[in-house]
Write a structure and sequence with these properties.
By secondary structure, the chain is an alpha+beta fold. It has 7 helices and 24 strands. The chain starts with 13 loop residues before the first helix and ends with a strand.
């Protein structure tokens, strides 16, 4: 039996032969030249980018931002740049005030990062920015505008790629100073903003703010071009008196008041004012402890209001309003943004003399007595129509004439009062029946912040009267005892221009 032949020696592995070939190629002079060139170009490019970021990028961005805000912008130095070139930290930056514009912004630090890979697949370039400890002072100008800016126009300003920018704000402090006031309104804010520069330019936001000791959260999205917005708003115990001071030349001076709200609102485009009637929403809103002084009204106006928003309708759950101790009213109903008002209003018994004095209404004769009104408010939101009845609850006194009962039905808008029927029964007997029209020009008075003056209002009034002459005239003139005058029957028109 023969022994088998020994195993042949193993052949060199494929891995060793492949490594040898790679080593021979790498040692080739041409390969060395190409490799060194590529590394040198990459190193020069890398160094060039870092040089550009550290020395040229900030002045370029400063110039563009200055054109938008119309004042100098100073960005801090680049404090660090990651080796991957996609993270930058910028030092203290500012937008200082100028003699023409007192607004200013100071920022402790800005961190910026971006990811270029989505751009390779046709997606927007995502940029993440964190603004640390921003402090801003914003001054309202005489026109009521807070911030003046101008976005670049024209094809020359378009970027070759879309942007998806996320901005985080940490420890933000804002001071708003309304026009012609000496004190500012402080706001502390933190939140996250998103700007998407694509077919539709959108701004998203989720902001928590402390405003006048109140907590406010706003979360939503707004189309920059059209103003269309979807907003969720939560407000806790917002003091309204200081906030109302933001509105320039307001005829209402609020002394106190508190707002609570939990709303989800869909706001339409604002290119046309008519689009506002397409506002939709869900939620609740409460106004409490409202006390205001209004031009031409001598007593404070107080109100409490509970509202429920459902779609395009605003339901009044509870509403009470009063003018001093003169008038108190209960309000019920709803407001539809498209169809308008559907409100019922009932007042207490009102002292006429006190009411006229409170409303700064001047009449040529003394008027007294008490009356009560039942009113219905209808019409479109911007064109209200007030319909109602007014009945005396105690005899009225006009100069020296006492009226046992007065009843009237009327309709009024912002320009006129139409008395559809007026029935007067003097205490002396008989009656007067009439109808007419008074041009109040209330809309013009409100726009010009002027009190109403009934003595200057044009009127036209038709009447029919049947009165016991001697009894009616007695307060003004006593006929001789031998003179007897019967019943006065008259029909006529009173016109004043």
């Amino acid at each position: 039996m023969t022994n088998p032949s020994p195993n042949p020696p193993p052949e060199p592995s494929n891995r060793r032969s492949f490594s040898a070939r790679v080593l021979r190629i790498a040692r080739h002079p041409a390969t060395l030249v190409i490799g060194v060139s590529v590394v040198a170009i990459a190193a020069v490019g890398y160094a060039g980018i870092r040089y550009f970021v550290y020395t040229r990028l900030m002045p370029l961005v400063e110039s563009q931002l200055s054109k938008i805000v119309k004042k100098p912008v100073y960005l801090g130095e680049v404090e660090s740049l990651s080796w991957t070139l996609n993270r930058i930290r910028i030092g203290a930056s500012s937008i200082p005030e100028t003699p023409e514009n007192r607004d200013r912004v100071d920022i402790k630090e800005i961190e910026i990062s971006f990811n270029p890979f989505p751009v390779l697949f046709g997606q927007p370039l995502p940029i993440e920015a964190t603004v640390i400890d921003p402090n801003a002072y914003i001054d309202q100008d005489a026109t009521g505008q807070w911030i003046e800016y101008e976005l670049p126009e024209g094809d020359g300003g378009e970027l070759p790629i879309d942007l998806d920018i996320h901005v985080n704000v940490r420890d933000g402090d804002i001071a708003l100073r309304p026009y012609r006031t000496t004190t500012s309104i402080p706001i502390q804010a933190e939140g996250r903003f998103r700007y998407l520069d694509a077919d539709e330019k959108l701004i998203g936001y989720d902001v928590d703010a402390t405003l006048l000791s109140s907590k406010v959260n706003a979360e939503g999205e707004t189309n920059i071009d059209t103003g269309k917005s979807e907003v969720a708003l939560v407000v806790e115990k917002l003091a309204l008196a200081q906030l109302l001071a933001i509105i320039p030349n307001s005829p209402v001076k609020l002394k106190s008041g508190q707002l609570n709200a939990d709303l989800n609102v869909s706001l339409p485009t604002l290119t046309e004012l008519d689009n506002l009637n397409r506002t939709r929403g869900q939620g609740n809103l409460n106004l409490s402890q409202i006390e205001a002084n209004i031009a031409s009204i001598k007593e404070p106006v107080r109100a409490t209001l509970d509202l429920n928003l459902q779609g395009q309708k605003l339901f009044i759950e509870q509403a009470q309003a009063s003018i001093g101790r003169v008038v108190a009213a209960q309000i019920a109903g709803d407001i539809d943004w498209e169809r308008g008002y559907n409100l019922n209003i009932k007042t207490n018994q009102v002292n006429i003399a006190n009411l006229l004095r409170t409303l700064s209404v001047k009449l040529p004769v003394r008027v007294g007595g008490e009356a009560q009104a039942n009113l219905q408010l209808t019409g479109l939101v911007d064109k209200p129509i007030l319909t109602g009845s007014l009945n005396s609850t105690r005899p009225l006194q006009i100069d020296k004439t006492q009226l046992r009962q007065v009843r009237t039905n009327f309709q009024a808008d912002l320009n006129k009062i139409v008395v559809q029927r007026l029935q007067i029964q003097p205490a002396a007997g008989g009656q007067i029946i009439g109808s007419g029209r008074v041009e109040t020009k209330l809309e013009q008075a409100l726009e010009n912040n002027k009190p109403l003056d009934f003595t200057k209002m044009p009127l036209a009034f038709n009447f029919r009267a049947q009165l016991p002459t001697e009894e009616v005239v007695a307060p003004y003139y006593q006929f001789p005892t031998d003179v007897t005058i019967g019943t006065l029957t008259a029909q006529g028109q009173v016109v004043a221009r």
